[in-house]
Design brief:
The chain has a single domain (13-130), classed as Four Helix Bundle (Hemerythrin (Met), subunit A) (Up-down Bundle). It is 78% helix and 0% strand. The relative contact order is 0.17. The chain is mainly α. α1 (15-37) packs antiparallel against α2 (40-68), α2 runs antiparallel to α3 and α3 (73-96) runs antiparallel to α4 (104-130).
């Protein structure tokens, strides 16, 4: 069951960034499926993996931005920091509970964030990197 379906519009025309975006969305999709199936053990693993991959992805983008001297680096990096704090805190809160319950708003929030971040940040970065 797919919560987020990959669209060609999501591509930023950078293989590494696109690959990481797809991977994050696949984790969210599997997490959504495990939540529906009530597979708490796998869901807990996926929540941890999600935060790790999100952090890794932000590190990748931050490195690409500094190496290429991307002019929008600071605002983009601040958005990464804010999102990582938000989702790390949310995941920590869920994992601390004896019985895992994933609020549906977690999925909706991530999807909205991903689409907005793509539109207003990553697409510009992708265009900039493609001209380097």
């Amino acid at each position: 069951m797919k919560f987020i379906r990959w669209k060609s519009d999501y591509s930023v025309k950078n293989k590494l960034i696109d690959s990481q975006h797809k991977s994050l969305n696949e984790i969210i999709n599997e997490l959504y499926e495990m939540d529906v199936k009530k597979d708490e053990k796998r869901a807990r693993e996926l929540l941890n993996e999600f935060v790790e991959k999100l952090d890794e992805h932000f590190d990748t983008e931050n490195k690409l931005m500094t190496e290429s001297e991307y002019p929008g680096y600071f605002s983009h990096k601040l958005e990464h920091e804010r999102a990582l704090r938000k989702y790390s805190s949310w995941v920590d809160s869920m994992l601390k509970k004896k019985k895992l319950e994933i609020d549906g708003e977690f999925f909706n929030s991530y999807k909205r964030w991903f689409e907005n971040h793509h539109t207003f940040q990553d697409s510009k970065l992708g265009t900039f990197l493609s001209h380097k």
